[in-house]
Amino acid sequence: MTQSLDLESLIRIAPKLAELSQEVLFNDIWKRDALSPRDRSLVTLGALTALGRAQQLPWHIDFAQRNGLTQTEITEAFTHLAFYAGWPAAVSALACLDEE
Questions:
Q1: Structure confidence by residue, pLDDT tens digits, 38-53
Q2: Do residues 44 and 60 touch, judged by C-beta distance below 8 A?
Q3: Which domains, and CATH codes, for the chain?
Q4: With contact defined as beta carbons under 8 Å apart, do 3 and 55 qualify?
Q5: Calpha distance 74→61 (Å, rounded)
Q6: How far is residue 73 CA from its own chain's centroid?
Q7: CA-to-CA separations, 64 to 43, 51, 59, 69, 83, in angstroms, rounded
Q8: Which of 57, 76, 85, 89 is deepest in the core (most CB within 10 A)?
Q9: What's the rounded Cα separation, in Å, for the pair 71 and 79?
């Protein structure tokens, strides 16, 4: 599996995408009051898992933990997703959690 880009690499490779990610996604969308950062992380982990975006999961697992989700809660979310997103997607997500 190819590693996801860190912010410095993204800035070097695609500066506009890095700028939009920071300004629109993290300084606007993630800071809206209707959902807590913890809830947004749970939704994000679910979407990445369902879409098979395992490359993005390690960073978002760490971010989810910083936003208050425990490893047990993340594991339970991936287990729950097996029945909605598919067994392979959930197992791939759990493999990313093991890397943490």
A1: 999 999 999 999 999 9
A2: yes
A3: 1-34 (no CATH), 36-100 (1.20.1290.10)
A4: yes
A5: 8
A6: 14
A7: 10, 18, 9, 6, 21
A8: 57
A9: 12
